[in-house]
Amino acid sequence: MFKKMNKKLKNFIFINIGVMGLALSFSFFLSPFGLVTGGIGGIAINVINILDRFGIEISESYHTIIESVIMMSINVILLILAFFLIGKEFFFKTLYCAVAYPIYTFLFGELAALVKFKELLPIDGSNIGGMLIIVLFSALLSGVSIGIAIKYGASTGGIDIIEKIMLKYFNVPYSVTLFVCDGITIIIASILSKNLLQICYGAIYMWLMGKLIDSVVFGGFRS
Hints:
Elements lengths: L1 H29 L8 H15 L6 H26 L2 H27 L2 H4 L7 H24 L7 H12 L3 H20 L3 H22 L5
Helix pairs in contact: 1-4, 1-6, 2-3, 2-8, 3-4, 3-7, 6-9, 7-8, 8-9
């Protein structure tokens, strides 16, 4: 009994570490520098940029709140779909992470603003070398974090749910759904910013993150 409880506690701790690492990557590196690399975080950034295009300006102090609300809303919709289309077991495994991720994102976003983290990294969009460092570091942190969460029996929600639905009903592999969903998000970001480098950054991020997830979950085995 105690062994079973210890295992559940261990899983819970490592799942939280994974979700926190993913949120840290988004709040400290991707969001402040406007990098869209797919996922619901990328969708949130695109929504804010689209609102800005229509003259609805959102101050930086409200960015973390709006991003968290958008991500939470998307996750709620996807969780409802998961409950009816995939089943209760997957739903409950994913529920915690899907809700915890936007909350951690908000908290880390507030922390990054409080310590003025972006000012500590004097990098802008024209600094290609600096932006590549941000992309590589955030991909490293995100890949390892997602790998930890998956290894200990959780899903981080978001695109993971769409992947599961597409595999179950249309036999579409996870990788295909991932590249299509994230690819569309990255292309939209590139159009909005009128910067093709967004696509390059996104491709590097997706490739490296995928490799790291494989390494953590499968020990190098490609599934």
